[in-house]
Specification:
Elements lengths: L1 H39 L7 H15 L1
Length: about 60
């Protein structure tokens, strides 16, 4: 019985110590997948309205 509890203790300790590393690995894989998908999508074309708003903002701020 002591041998079983010893093995069980080691396994639980190993799981607790490796869980954060595994969670980080899964997170990195998700981010990599999102970046690959973003590379395949075409970039949206900039609108001229945004550029006019920026220009008006700079003119109003300078005054």
């Amino acid at each position: 019985m002591n041998t079983f509890l010893g093995y069980l203790t080691v396994l639980i300790l190993a799981a607790v110590l490796t869980a954060p590393a595994f969670a980080g690995y899964v997170r990195e894989r998700r981010i990599d997948r999102q970046l690959r998908e973003a590379e395949l999508r075409p970039a949206p074309a900039p609108t001229s309205r945004v550029r006019r708003d920026l220009a008006a903002h700079h003119v109003a701020r300078a005054a």
